[in-house]
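Troubleshooting: if your tokenizer reports a length mismatch, compare your output against this known-good record of 236 residues.
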Amino acid sequence: MADWAAKRFWKEATVVPEADGFAVHLDGRPVRTPAKAPLIVPTQTFAELIAAEWDAQEGKIDPETMPATRSANAAIDRVGQVHGEVVTMIADYADSDLLCYRAAYPEALVERQKAAWDPLLDWVASEFDAPLEPRVGVIHVPQPRNSLDRLQALAAEMSSFELAAFHDLVSLSGSFVIGLAATRNAHPIEALWAISRVDEMFQSEQWGEDEEAAEEAAIKRTSFLNAHKFFHAIQN
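Known-good structure output:
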């Protein structure tokens, strides 16, 4: 039984309009989530991404090749049930945002962090009246309460589907601000990923690239780019 895996049993995956969104059908039968809820998403664009993943399966079904389906399942089965708790969890990243914790030395890293991170802090301060204060070192110092409340309110406004994608953008980058910038397309998504990797790239330049760390970073980058794609597919 350990080697058992579901195999493809359908010929065609199609997108079907529903009263409250769009479903994916396999030979006319609706796809359901692992919790047996109907898999219905807000937009045709997102449903088409999911249908394409099902159409691409050959032989055994591999969930690892179906990130849009997994994101929809998470939104329906998990985020939708504890929306407020997920909002609070994501908002906590703003209080310890990657962009606010700066190196004391070497000077080259200090300047690189400043050049990459200050513009995003300026953006979130001006765009949302939510200034966050950078500091040197890794000891936690709380950010201004008014700023945290404003940022948490932005997350609270998101749907369960948006919040599932936003969670990945924030957790993978380590930054609420970077995740928020991705949802607003404030910078190209590849640039935002690079901004989240300033410290790691500096270290690899100094000491050489660690193969295992590079492989892990590549997986995270793909997930980050997917989360961005899913967030905007939910809105179109």
